[in-house]
Amino acid sequence: MIHTREEMRLYTKKVEVDKLMPGDILAHDLYLDHGVLVIPAGIKLTEYHIAKLKNVEEKVVSIDLTKVYVKAIEDSKVLMKKVEEGKPITKKEVVRMLQPILKETRREKNIVRLLIQLQCQDDYTFQHTVNIGIVAGVIAKWMGYTDEEELSKIAVAGTLHDIGKSKVPMQILKKPGPLTSIEFEVMKKHPKLGFDILSRFPSFDDEVKLAVLQHHEREDGRGYPQGLEGDAIHPYAKIIAIADVYHAMTSKRVYRGRISPFLVLDHLHKNLDCLDTEIILVFVKNMLNCLIGTRVALSDGRIGYVTFIDPKAIGYPVIRLEKDHKILDLYEHKDITVEEILIE
Question: Start and end of every HD-GYP domain (predicted)?
Answer without folding.
Answer: 103-300
